[in-house]
From TrEMBL, chain A:
Tagged with keyword Amino-acid biosynthesis: no
Keywords on record: Cell membrane, Membrane, Transmembrane, Transmembrane helix, Transport
One GO location term (cellular component): plasma membrane
Family statement: Belongs to the binding-protein-dependent transport system permease family.
Membrane association type: Multi-pass membrane protein
Subcellular location: Cell membrane
Organism annotation: Microvirga aerilata
Main location: membrane
Keyword Transmembrane included in the entry's annotation: yes
Stored Gene3D superfamilies: MetI-like
Domain ABC transmembrane type-1: 94-303
MF GO annotations: dipeptide transmembrane transporter activity
Name recorded for this polypeptide: ABC transporter permease
From TrEMBL, chain B:
ABC transporter domain residues: 21-277, 320-570
The protein's name in its UniProt record: ABC transporter ATP-binding protein
Coiled-coil region: none
GO cellular component labels: plasma membrane
Location(s), subcellular: Cell inner membrane
Superkingdom, taxonomy of origin: Bacteria
One term of GO molecular function: ATP hydrolysis activity
CDD domains assigned: ABC_NikE_OppD_transporters
Biological processes annotated in GO: peptide transport; transmembrane transport
InterPro entries: AAA+_ATPase (IPR003593), ABC_Ni/Peptide_Import (IPR050388), ABC_transporter-like_ATP-bd (IPR003439), ABC_transporter-like_CS (IPR017871), Oligopep_ABC_C (IPR013563), P-loop_NTPase (IPR027417)
Length: 313, 621
């Protein structure tokens, strides 16, 4: 219980710091909201009027207070580019991005764990070399490269999946999955490579432990020893690393979503940055940070379920 | 104590029976990067039903490889059985050869007909499964028991290994149990299916001596009650003397000698066995002797023989005087990581050490002996107390003065693998303290380092080598050379020989005693090994729960122990003599209470009774 309270407290603190930083940085950027709205050629008097009415002449502290107050009360302001309430926009895009992030995570874990275990069991033999070198290949090449390869292979040549676009999972789930699949795969490959290496090294360490020898000495089948007794110990560390990679995924979706023209958070952030849509930039950065931290909290709580040693601590 | 006569009869009657296990010409190879390495070769011995056979040897002797081969577990470590046979008499009466058994048959035999216990109780249990699950899985596979039946059986097993509150243990996870309890669970696991053979691979090496005594008695009792045979792997001759019916001595992958326990201990035929036995200190063999004595090393009489440091000389100058030393470690907790309690590691400890003498602090895990040594060198900061070394209170020194004072106080650590920097040449590591204190440089420095190497009997060709090229004993010699480089007055040796094989241990102990005689060094010798302490010390302090419970001249403490803890410690130490078996049936040592106290808790001062001149015993509070 104290542990969870501790974690929540540190999350609140971190979010506060992030809000200060995002607000601070966007304030330093040249060109203010009033100029964005009215354009650079506009009448200076009207511009000054708009500044005054938007409260842009108030001290930084007051503007920050207004912004954070709005965030907390659900008033996230309007996007300058999309002419829509930001809250509404974000909810819609988060749904889209969550779909590919979750899918890529599932794809990555589903391949990485067996591959990593397989490599660890056959350590220093050809199986290990195959697994390690493919993991190295996956890590070395950036995800937009995999994205291009996939568009060429699965969309252009084979025609199995659409090369771009987006469908709302709430309305057409099947089509949404089809659209999400290639971006998810492109994202998942790098992640999978990383997790395979992680699983391999964790499992290698565990397979050398005395309790594994004890399990074998009890007469348990090798399958049980590896896939149940050893893996139960490896899954915690692997999950933690996977959780930390969610942050990396949210960074990568900017490139991958733009490449696949998939209109999610990444695409939105890119548009916001491109058009200096200050309120939207602030909100997206803040939301991405919050999502990343929440996922890590969830992962750590799951770890509690898996590993009894931390439960008491 | 076992009835020796009936036991001999028992063994004799077994000779007509068929052996349970017979190992013949076993050869195991390992594939390494440097080609094939032979683990064991030409190993043959047999185990009769109901008999305890001890395989004894130093590290690298192949004793574990042999036991793992019997279970065909050696393959998981990269080994291959390339020659010989391992015949096992199954419960059905059928003889089988383990070497040629297939995977399914081996899985049927492992844990069912042959049970195995390993060395590390802390890592022998799967940390993420409950005790119940780990106790029942074997039963469910081999005996086909239902979950309820298996649980009932597990409970019985926990009772038979005498674990307190067995019902509660079933639901617990390994980390919630102490080392001794975990080893009991591991034994219960190995015993679950009532195997005909129990292989115990160093089952007590990682345990404290009182827990070791309990575990040994437990294995002995279970063996007698179930009539199972035990293959006991150990490096400890004292344990062999206590447990074995027959002994197999191994050296570098070969069987050197085998015979009954009496034969091996009383009339060993081979030179190696004799040397091994000679190097083992026996508790009680220093009775009637006032001064420490060098260890016996066969074949390598030191020339000239070490002049043992003379008997306690009451006129000698005091070098180190520790007064009311107390060390506490904060326990952090809560949201703000504040100190919520204190571990009372060292509690009001006082003693003095004279020039040229050895004072040993002896005690079990967590008694505060290492914390005490480190507090004296200020590697950790004490809470209160005075540490007078050569007229200076070490605790009152500022950073610069402390650095200068460290010239006079050096330390030798337990693990010579971890205490040397793997990236630096040995000569540079020994030269470091000399450079650090600007004592010498250039040509002179090189000469000094070379002399230090001579002093610790390391060849000069080692000067330019790196730590990984040396054996454990050689590395410990380097650590000693480094410690004596600055001509210190005090050396704190924290379990300095515990990680070494017994023959190497004897050599290093002799080196330390020789250096003491030549250089007038004072040693604060921290150890858990009562027999070694008896051999090397002038005075002894027995520590328990942070306090010295008994302090005095070695002879007084060992020959006339007064404090109940000292007595139980003496009782628990196995003696390397099969005629002095002390397998007590109902050994029940009190578990050590927690040293964690709430903030602001001020325990009573230590008060002592002087029962004889210089012999102090802690007054019960």
């Amino acid at each position: 219980m104290t542990y969870i309270l501790n974690r929540l407290l540190s999350i609140v603190l971190t979010l506060f710091l992030i809000s200060v930083i995002t607000f601070g940085v966007t304030n330093i950027l040249p060109g203010d909201v009033a100029t964005m709205i009215m354009g650079t050629q506009s009448n200076p008097a009207a511009l000054a009027g708009l500044r005054e009415s938007l409260g842009l002449n108030d001290p930084v502290i007051m503007r920050y207070g207004r912004w954070i107050g709005g965030l907390l009360t659900g008033d996230w302001g309007h996007s300058l580019v999309f002419k829509q309430p930001i809250a509404e926009l974000l909810i819609q895009k988060i749904k889209a991005s969550s779909l590919i992030v979750i899918m890529s995570m599932v794809i990555a874990l589903a391949c990485a764990v067996p591959l990593g275990v397989w490599a660890a069991v056959h350590r220093n033999r050809w199986q290990d070399t195959v697994s390690s070198s493919s993991a190295l290949l996956g890590i070395s090449l950036p995800d937009f490269f995999w994205g291009i390869v996939m568009i060429l292979l699965f969309a252009r040549t084979l025609g199995w999946f659409p090369s771009s676009g987006f469908a709302d999972p709430a309305q057409e789930f099947g089509r949404a999955l089809m659209h999400a699949f290639l971006p998810a795969l492109a994202l998942g490959l790098g992640l999978m490579a990383h997790l395979t290496r992680m699983t391999r090294s964790t499992m290698t360490g565990i397979l050398e432990q005395e309790f594994i020898r004890v399990s074998r000495a009890k007469g348990l089948a090798e399958r049980t020893v590896v896939w149940r007794y050893a893996l139960a110990n490896a899954i915690g560390p692997v999950m933690t690393v996977a959780g930390l990679q969610v942050g990396y995924l949210f960074g990568s979706i900017i490139v991958v979503e733009t490449l696949f023209n998939y209109t999610g958070m990444g695409w939105l952030t890119y548009q916001a940055l491109l058009n200096r849509d200050v309120p939207l930039i602030q909100a997206t950065v803040f939301v991405i940070a919050a999502v990343v931290m929440l996922t890590n909290l969830i992962v750590d709580l799951l770890y509690l379920l898996v590993d009894p040693r931390i439960r008491l601590g | 104590m076992l009835d020796r006569k009936s036991e001999t009869l028992n063994t004799a009657s077994n000779h007509s029976a068929q052996p349970l296990v017979s190992v013949e010409n076993l050869r195991v190879e390992f594939d390494t990067d440097d080609g094939i390495v032979v683990g064991v070769e030409n190993v043959s011995f047999s185990i009769m039903p109901g008999e305890t056979v001890c395989v004894v040897g130093e590290s690298g002797s192949g004793k574990s490889v042999t036991s793992l081969s019997l279970m065909r577990l050696v393959e998981f470590g990269g080994g291959r059985i390339t020659k010989g046979s391992l015949r096992f008499n199954r419960a059905s009466g059928e003889m089988m050869d383990v070497v040629h058994a297939d995977t399914a048959l081996m899985q049927e035999i492992r844990g069912n007909e042959i049970g195995m216990i390993f060395q590390e109780p802390m890592t022998s249990l799967n940390p993420v499964f409950t005790i119940e699950r780990q106790l029942t899985d074997g039963l469910r596979i081999h005996k086909g028991l239902s979950q309820e039946a298996a649980r009932a059986m597990a409970l019985e097993l926990l009772k038979s290994v005498r674990i307190p509150e067995p019902e509660r243990r079933l639901k617990q996870y390994p980390h919630e149990l102490s080392g001794g309890m975990r080893q009991r669970v591991v034994i219960a696991m190995a015993m679950a299916c009532e195997p005909r053979l129990l292989i115990a691979d160093e089952p007590t090496t990682a345990l404290d001596v009182t827990i070791q005594a309990e575990i040994l008695a437990l294995i002995d009792r279970l063996k007698r009650e179930n009539g199972m045979a035990v293959l006991f792997i150990t490096h400890d001759m004292a344990v062999v003397a206590q447990m074995a019916d027959r002994v197999v001595v191994m050296y570098r992958g070969n069987v050197v000698e085998q015979g009954t326990v009496d034969q091996i201990f009383e009339t060993p035929r081979e030179e190696y066995t004799r040397a091994l036995l000679a190097a083992v200190p026996k508790l009680g063999e220093m009775r009637g002797k006032a001064a420490p004595e060098p260890m016996r090393i066969l074949g390598a009489e030191p020339t000239p023989p070490i002049q043992p440091s003379v008997a306690q000389d009451l006129d000698r100058e005091v070098l180190l005087n520790v007064k009311n030393l107390t060390t506490r470690f904060p326990v952090k907790g809560g949201v703000l990581r504040r100190t919520v309690a204190n571990v009372h590691a060292v509690e009001d400890v006082s003693f003095s050490l004279k020039v040229g003498e050895t004072l040993s602090l002896v005690g079990e895990t967590g008694c505060g002996k290492s914390s005490c040594g480190r507090s004296i060198l200020r590697l950790i900061e004490a809470y209160t107390g005075e540490i007078w070394l050569d007229g200076q209170d070490i605790r009152k020194l500022g950073a610069t003065e402390l650095r200068q004072a460290r010239r006079n106080m050096q330390m030798i650590f337990q693990d010579p693998f971890a205490s040397l920097n793997p990236f630096r040449r040995l000569q540079d590591q020994v030269a470091e303290p000399l450079l650090n204190f600007h004592l010498t440089s250039g040509r002179e420095l090189e000469d000094r380092v070379a002399h230090l190497f001579d002093r610790v009997e390391l060849p000069r060709s080692f000067l330019r080598r790196y730590p990984h090229e040396l054996s454990g004993g050689q590395r410990q010699r380097v650590a000693i050379a480094r410690a004596i480089a600055t001509n210190p007055k005090l050396i704190v040796a924290d379990e300095a020989v515990s990680a070494l094989d017994v023959s190497v241990q004897a050599q290093v102990l002799n080196l330390l005693m020789e250096l003491q005689a030549d250089l007038g060094l004072s040693f604060l010798f921290i150890s858990h090994d009562m027999a070694v302490v008896e051999r090397v010390s002038h005075s002894v302090g027995v520590m328990y729960l942070g306090r010295i419970v008994e302090l005095g001249p070695r002879q007084a403490v060992f020959e006339d122990p007064r404090h109940p803890y000292t007595k139980s410690l003496m009782l628990a130490v196995p003696i390397a003599d099969p005629r002095q078996r002390r397998m007590h049936e109902n050994l029940k040592f009190k578990p050590v209470p927690s040293p964690i106290f709430p903030l602001g808790h001020e325990p009573e001062r230590s008060a002592y009774d002087e029962v004889a001149p210089g012999h102090y015993v802690l007054r019960p509070s």
